[in-house]
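Weekend entry, working from home. Most of the wet-lab plans are on hold until the incubator is repaired, so I used the time to fold the two sequences that have been sitting in the queue since the last round of cloning. Logging both here for the record. First:
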Amino acid sequence: MSGTGLSEAGWASLRTAAREAMARAYAPYSGYPVGAAALVDDGRTVSGCNVENASFGLGLCAECGLVSRLQATGGGRLTHFACVDGRGEPLVPCGRCRQLLYEFGGPELVLETPAGFRTLAEMLPQAFGPDHLVAGHPAADDHPASPAS
């Protein structure tokens, strides 16, 4: 074990899934393909790749595809996460994607980063999440309960 609750073989499997997703990325404008993979609390592995768009602001990060696949295949809670660049090397999620991962993995989600393994709480301190939405607030009443609550 690497102190993360997942064996090195488990992390190797996540990196492989992330590299396979990265190979399917659509990155004709930046030339920067990204792949991501995560382990779900029920044992599934979900993955995603970045998908760019000629209207640059409409591009989707690999983490967006991963979370979409998570929901489309039954939901659940992310427990371990790996992201790789076009060389297959570990890549740290941007701030926006950390927030997205927080919604579906929470503070205890373990990420592989270039600096080693870190929890999402370390990578996104004092994160805003579902617990900040007060019951009775219109936004909370209109939004279905999230998996992070």
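Second, folded right after the first finished:
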Amino acid sequence: MSAQRACGVSELEQDTPLRVEIDGVAIALVKDADDVIHAIGDRCTHGDISLAEGFVEGKTLECWAHGSAFSLETGHPLNLPAYEPVPVYAVTIDGDDVLIDPTVTKEV
């Protein structure tokens, strides 16, 4: 599969997660304070909660339910109760389009 359009760059607000779904894969997109766009799996590995409903701080996305923060760059949890990482996807920008291939995770 090749990368597919997830949303427009203009649809992303800084430090505000956006949930998208591509071929049944839920992904949380975040444009951080440096205007870097990150794509990580949208489900917290601790409680199966949507991370797109969480809080962005720096390069982390915190689950609103139990407080586990995940690195936007690696997907690794930075504190308990989560201990398993979420997938991280490569992001390609083409004009205003944010493209993601949900079948390929980044090597971190």
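Plan for Monday: verify the second prediction. DSSP finds no helices and nine strands in the chain.
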